[in-house]
């Protein structure tokens, strides 16, 4: 039966009178006829208010690593509720969860908690500035580090790398431009160039070694090694943003997977299985700059909220002490194999990137090495296919820059259904393309 979004469409008319674009986060707005309003979620599935059922590969852009409404995590969160809401004092559990993080991520000597990825990266960047006494920073093209003014800068892939730097959206103060540098991934010479020219003013190099916001395009081992050495040589803090990769691609995140050690790193998403919590951590000498008269400001009314903290405690216990991450990677791997067979059967060139738990799919011959190369892939085919998959109840992001996230709740039934529907969606898209070519 074709999907109906009648109730969602009707609700959109009401929502748009209350909320800009009818939603509470810009990326949830898919237009008047496609915006989905959720009724409930469980495991790997979402049901919308029209009763449509989806297998979810967005899982909130990564957080619900154990699945939606995981009973174990929700029970822990209810225990956290008994502690209370906010009281502007500390609890023992903050140290317990910090100890878990330190055990899983060896580069972390000390931890501070916050509520969102944005807050964690923003505080880390401030910390890097304070420690280095240098206000500028470098980011990698195609990366995303949250919604704060220093991070909301980009270069469109069709623009010149040096000339095209622009704020990602209105309202970002243009005076910040001089603090921001953007380099392509996997080009250590470019990084060295920028550092040679501007290292006096650059305090931090911010990187997602798996670009979770650009199809999981991945840093090459030698590049990461070079970047680490360059940061050391030029006295620049290496800030690894593990908001998407943390506690997902390995227990110790991308740092364990790729054998690299950050000076500072940030976590959110999988840390709390969907409950709002984030963390920053890193070298003791840097982290000790938090607080005091000369130190940096970090914290807030809701930091280390007992409900989220209890959820994080349980989530990390499960991720650290069971083979959940191996199971997730195995599912992702089998899904890529199945999708690969369907595409190869039709002679469609394709590659996967990143880690199977958050893999990117590109229609091209070889894996893109940076964001610029993503722009040369057939992302229009991806976009058409994604739209069709969503119609059939396979909820991937409509944009090819978002990887497919897998949770522990994705089981063999999900896999079989996903592959069957992938085949159907592909056939529909190719038939449609064939028909429109025939009409030319
Ligand atoms: N860093 C990365 C790598 C992210 O992917 C995101 C969000 N997708 C953020 C930071 C910001 O996190 P939040 O949305 O929780 O503020």
Structural Rg: 22 Å
Major beta-sheet overview: 7 strands, mixed
Helical run tally: 13
Count of individual beta strands:
18
The side-by-side strand order for the widest beta sheet comes to 4-14-13-12-9-5-8
| Each distinct ligand | 4'-deoxy-4'-aminopyridoxal-5'-phosphate
Helix vs. strand class: alpha/beta
Q: In the CATH hierarchy, what is the class of the largest domain? A: Alpha Beta
- The helicity comes to 25-40%
CATH fold name of the largest domain: Aspartate Aminotransferase, domain 2
CATH homologous superfamily grouping of the largest domain = Type I PLP-dependent aspartate aminotransferase-like (Major domain)
Shape: globular
Summed up, the domain count is 2
Distance between the termini: 31 Å
Percentage of residues in DSSP E strands = 15-25%
Give start-end ranges of low-pLDDT stretches. Answer: none
Mean pLDDT comes to 96
CATH architecture classification name of the largest domain:
3-Layer(aba) Sandwich
Could you please describe the fold and organization of this structure?
By secondary structure, this protein is an alpha/beta fold. The protein folds into two domains: 36-68 and 323-438, Aspartate Aminotransferase, domain 1; 71-321, Aspartate Aminotransferase, domain 2, CATH 3.40.640. 39% of the residues lie in helices and 16% in strands. The chain is built from 13 helices and 18 strands. It has helices spanning 6-18, 71-83, 92-104, 117-132, 188-198, 221-233, 253-258, 284-287, 306-321, 324-345, 371-374, 379-392, 412-439, and strands at residues 38-42, 45-48, 53-56, 110-114, 136-140, 153-154, 166-167, 180-183, 202-207, 210-211, 217-218, 237-241, 264-267, 278-282, 351-355, 358-362, 394-395, 404-405. Strands 4-14-13-12-9-5-8 form a seven-stranded mixed β-sheet, sandwiched between helices. It has a four-stranded mixed β-sheet with strand order 1-2-3-17. The protein has a three-stranded antiparallel β-sheet with strand order 15-16-18, covered by helices on one side. Helix 10 (324-345) packs parallel to helix 13 (412-439). The protein is globular and about 65 Å long. The relative contact order is 0.15.
């Amino acid at each position: 039966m074709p999907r109906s979004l009648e109730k969602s469409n009707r609700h959109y008319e009401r929502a748009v009178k209350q909320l800009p674009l009818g939603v509470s986060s810009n990326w949830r707005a898919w237009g008047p006829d496609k915006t989905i309003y959720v009724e409930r979620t469980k495991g790997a599935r979402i049901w919308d208010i029209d009763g449509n059922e989806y297998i979810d590969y967005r899982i909130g852009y990564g957080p619900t690593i154990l699945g939606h409404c995981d009973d174990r995590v929700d029970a822990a969160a209810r225990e956290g509720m008994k502690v209370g809401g906010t009281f502007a004092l500390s609890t023992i559990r903050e140290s317990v969860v910090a100890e878990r993080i330190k055990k899983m991520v060896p580069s972390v000597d000390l931890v501070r908690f916050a509520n969102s990825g944005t807050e964690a990266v923003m505080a880390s960047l401030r910390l890097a500035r304070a420690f280095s006494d240098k206000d500028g920073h470098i980011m990698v093209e195609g990366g995303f580090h949250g919604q704060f003014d220093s991070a909301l800068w980009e270069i469109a892939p069709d623009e010149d790398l040096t000339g095209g730097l622009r704020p990602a959206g209105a309202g970002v103060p243009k005076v910040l431009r001089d603090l921001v540098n953007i380099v392509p991934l996997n080009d250590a010479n470019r990084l060295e160039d920028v550092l040679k020219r501007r290292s006096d003013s650059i305090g931090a190099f911010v990187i997602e070694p798996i670009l979770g916001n650009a199809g999981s395009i991945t840093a090459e081992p030698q590049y990461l090694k070079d970047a680490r050495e360059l940061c050391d040589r030029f006295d620049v803090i290496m800030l690894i943003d593990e908001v998407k990769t943390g506690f997902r691609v390995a227990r110790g995140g991308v740092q364990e997977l790729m054998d690299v050690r950050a000076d500072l790193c940030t976590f959110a998403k999988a840390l709390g299985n969907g409950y709002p919590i984030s963390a920053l951590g890193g070298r003791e000498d840097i982290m000790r700059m938090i607080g005091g008269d000369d130190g940096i400001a970090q914290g807030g009314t809701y930091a280390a909220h007992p409900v989220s903290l209890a959820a994080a405690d349980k989530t990390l216990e499960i991720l650290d002490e069971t083979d959940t991450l191996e199971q997730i990677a195995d599912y992702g791997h089998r899904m890529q194999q199945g999708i690969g067979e369907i595409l190869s059967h039709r002679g469609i060139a394709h590659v996967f990137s990143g880690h199977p738990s958050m893999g990117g799919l590109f229609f091209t011959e070889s894996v893109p090495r940076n964001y610029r190369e993503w722009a040369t892939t057939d992302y229009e085919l991806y976009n058409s296919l994604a739209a069709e998959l969503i119609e059939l109840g396979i909820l991937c992001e409509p944009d090819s820059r978002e990887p497919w996230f897998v949770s522990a709740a994705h089981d063999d039934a999900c896999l079989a259904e996903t592959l069957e529907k992938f085949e159907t969606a592909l056939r529909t898209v190719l038939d449609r393309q064939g028909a429109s070519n025939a009409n030319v």
